[in-house]
Specification:
The chain has a domain of 210 residues: Rossmann fold. It is built from 11 helices and 14 strands. Strands 3-2-1-4-5-6-11 form a 7-stranded parallel β-sheet, sandwiched between helices. A 3-stranded mixed β-sheet has the order 12-9-14. Strand 1, helix 1 and strand 2 form a beta-alpha-beta unit. The longest helix is centred in the C-terminal third of the chain and has 26 residues. It is globular, with a radius of gyration of 19 Å.
Length: 311
Amino acid sequence: MSSRQKVYIAGCGGMLGEAVYRRFNKFAEVKATDIDLNEPWLEYADVRDYRQCLESIESFAPDAIINLAALTDLEYCEKDSDNAWLTNALGAENLGLIANHLDIPYVYISTAGIFGGDKDYYTDFDIPEPSSVYAKAKYYGELFVLRHVKKHFVFRAGWMMGGGLKKDKKFINKLYRQIKSGKDVLYVVEDKSGTPTYTVDFAEGIKAVIESGLYGLYNQVCGGSGTRLDVAEEFVRCVGLEGKLRVEPVSSEFFAADYFAPRPTSERLVNLKLSARGLNKMRDWKTCLAEYSSVFLEDLQNSTAEIEQIL
């Protein structure tokens, strides 16, 4: 990408949007939109509204469209399935049609959650079997893009981590909020496995693949894999609390009331195509978690210092 090119990023207000915006803004003119205007660099646009998006995109005349817009809370998607389908499926269609209209590349983000979970690992060529509303809507979006958008890049992500204290709505920040509230025991499921995916590396990977011009579908996750328990134990170590609090393994049934949406037993992906094409920019998940954890470690140290001053 270069400063002479323009990139339109939809759904850019979330944890992945933060990383993608900052990466692409260094090399191209970026128009970032969302329905939640939580940054000064965001403009309003709703991917569910075709005409509004068409006007927003055409007025910018981009060289590429990146669609990050998604409802990713699985329980919310089960409860409000219409909105989940409109955002995750129709939104993918709307921006794909606009990309075709403008004859420009289109980036769509899919998920490891579309698989059935019966295999230990999934490559780019395995056949999805989505079970939740979220997964079904995302898979519909993936299929539409693959079948109907001429210039497409589809990236399947794993367990996303990134965005920091403000924007991380996923596993790492949920753990940290428990730690910050004073919990001395973290109950973490040990019967779900997957591949952590660092937003910073993911953004770098998107850039590399777009620049390659090799359209298609790509698994894009960090190296290595583990269970939720493995990730929690590593995070506790990274923030210097190993031996100071306990990580207790439990089954998924322990959280069944709160997390009732169906989830695959295994969401482990392998970056087979990226590696074969020399485009794999994803580091090992433990390396990325150590880097990401510095944000939480600093906040924890600052909080401890504040408490000590009060005392």
